[in-house]
Amino acid sequence: FSRAAPHFAGMIGANPRLLEHLPGESDEFTRRDYKADFAAALEKQTDFAGSLSALRKIWSRSILEIAAFDAFGRIDWRDAKKRQTRLAEASIESALEIARRELERK
Asked: Which residues of the chain have pLDDT under 70?
């Protein structure tokens, strides 16, 4: 985590509101359905820019959550990598859906 810390510090520095969503050391890490998280956020969006913004917000919150629980030792590195992979897959699917919707609008 220490090698990644500057990256995550930069993310938080660029968007301090992410701190509101950062879990505490004693919080429970539950299995997340990233696809459902993205779908719920995108469902509320009506335009391309809003959809991209929602995608970035969910991704940022989720990756920081994984990193925090990894740093706290609440999940091991294998579990962290699996969660990152699921998050990446859900992100890509959501990005493709955003692109599809935008192409249909045009």
From this structure: 1-7, 21, 23-26
